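S2.1 Query sequence (Trafficking protein particle complex subunit)
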Amino acid sequence: VGHAVLAINGAEVNGRLTADGKDVLEFLGNPANYPVSIRFGRHRLSSNEKLMLASMFHSLFAIGSQLSPEVGSSGIEMLETDTFKLHCFQTLTGTVRGRAPAPLLAAAEPGLPPAPLRLAAGIKFVVLADPRQAGIDSLLRKIYEIYSDFALKNPFYSLEMPIRCELFDQNLKLALEVAEKAGPFGPGS
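Output structure tokens follow.
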């Protein structure tokens, strides 16, 4: 449930059509096309769906940070379900509305002097993975390294904007392929 054909014989599929405009069902119905290699997966999210999910996670992350009994909690690091694990890595540095993070003052109780309240600032890297997948922490650190090398050092990249950099995309894809080849019980399990 929720899976679709993503590629046939290495050619991307968009909906019911292959990259060269052929209908997928007609292609699969023709015995002359066999053997065939089919890649299944979940539908790709639109940009709006990605933004909506990121906003929702950011809110849950902020609530988790505030509700944590641990002082200086880093918020949600992992959410686990029976079908996937969501891993989050937050950088230690970042900006809060264009300026460096600074302590804010908040009164703990009426009549008491204000106490410093630190807001988490930085970039969040989120990975959804199979619950049995090993090595996600090292994958998150590798993604951060790729981001630092190919996005932050790119003079055409602006913070808080989508990353449009071919070298970033290539290196990210390579890191994900390496993690995928490691398998669910790869190094670090």
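The CA atoms of residues 65 and 72 lie 8 Å apart. The chain has two domains: 1-44, 46-182.
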